[in-house]
Amino acid sequence: MPGNMLRPMKPVTHRAAWVMADPWTLIPNGYVTADVGRILAVGCWGQGRAAADTDSGHIIDHGPGLLMPCLVNAHSHMELCALGGKTVSNRGFIAWVESVIALKADIADTDLIKAAREGYGRSLTEGVRVLGDISTSGITESVFHELPVLGVLFREYLGSASEDPLCRRIGPAKTISLAGHAPHTTAPDLLVRLKNITRRQGLPFAIHLAESAAEMEFIAVGAGPWADLLRAREIDFSTWRFLRQSPVAYADTLGLLDDATLAVHLVYADKNDIGLLADRHVKVCLCPQSNMSLHGRLPDLPAMLNAGIKPCLGTDSPASNPDASIWAEMAFLVKSFPGIASSEVLAMATCNGAAALGLGDLLGRLKPGFMADLIYLPIHATTPQTIMESLVHDRPDPDLISHI
Ligand SMILES: [Zn+2]
């Protein structure tokens, strides 16, 4: 049977008491009309073009709750789902890294893949369909292909790997791209090579940056506990240059910072670093629960917002954040930074995340021309403010989230 025979012959209009087009636009008595996966119209039912837009199509009234875009988790490591709750978390960052390496080596690929599949499944169930997922081994690439997730699978490289890294677009909103793990784990010439490959193809590039005190010391002077770890693992860093720079300044020296680079963590980024990131229009992803768990501190989110950066949110891996949920990240963030508006936090989990993955013209908002990837939440609220408060504070029961 030809594929188009399975498609509805007419547009479908979804109605609800509220439609969130973006975190600053809540439409009462709203509707979204879609056809073949794309949004045709968004508006207030009964006003203006609504009748003309929906005359000839099927109408579904979802009820008294909210239609909104699917959420975005811009930094996850689904291939580490099997490590959740098993890592050493109370003896410092280096001990945690060593435990991740040892555990991953001990778990069979089939078990890592099975747990990753379950992780993707939990994400979809929670209405988080767009991911920036990291894969160091490549074993989760087939799962990413197969499941109805969107976003970017970043093949991540450490050390000085010599294979030819490949990246490619799978569909309009599904891409395999590249990541350098971090400045203290990946040789500088490899970081430059990876960034140049993604730059030539117009794809996003990801890197963990300024995450730990050990990274700060190593990048500045080439010494400290991270240098000891590399020596113990017989990793040669003798050709790396240490210029008393921060990791952000070092990444800039290598030419890694531009508007297609997604810098993750930035726990130790100071005001100069934040200014540099803003000047280079770098995309920024924060993983607050992982940061607090591993490092006992959070990035300077207010300074980032003041500098004009539009950060997004990631869960990081269950190895550092067993409760890997974007809803939980939002709730943790508003508790940690009570002065930040709910709309800013929701933007981090929707439109900012989509933009960070190079999908800001397709996902993260409900807008004509965008992909019709939306969810319905049966929340009962009477004003835009109470809806926003509910979204960022109250993690919804996944069983009550409808996927449109
Ligand atoms: Zn990470």
Summary keywords:
404 residues; alpha/beta; Urease, subunit C, domain 1; TIM Barrel; nine-stranded mixed sheet; 34% helix; disordered N terminus
| Heterogens | zinc ion
Structure annotation, total helices: 15
**What's the mean pLDDT score?**
93
The CATH topology of the largest domain is given as TIM Barrel
Number of domains: 2
Taken from the alpha-carbon principal axes, the silhouette is globular
* Largest sheet properties: 9 strands, mixed
How many whole angstroms does the radius of gyration measure? 22 Å
Highest-level CATH class of the largest domain = Alpha Beta
Specify the helix fraction band. 25-40%
- The secondary-structure class comes to alpha/beta
Q: Could you state the CATH homologous superfamily of the largest domain?
A: Metal-dependent hydrolases
Structure, described:
The chain is of the alpha/beta class. The chain has two domains: 107 residues, Urease, subunit C, domain 1; 286 residues, Metal-dependent hydrolases (TIM Barrel), CATH 3.20.20.140. Helix content is 34%, strand content 23%. The protein is globular, with a radius of gyration of 22 Å. The chain starts with 11 loop residues before the first strand and ends with a strand. Bound molecules: zinc ion.
Q: Briefly, what is this?
A:
With 404 residues, the protein is α/β, with parallel strands linked by helices. It has 15 helices and 16 strands. It starts with 11 loop residues before the first strand and ends with a strand.
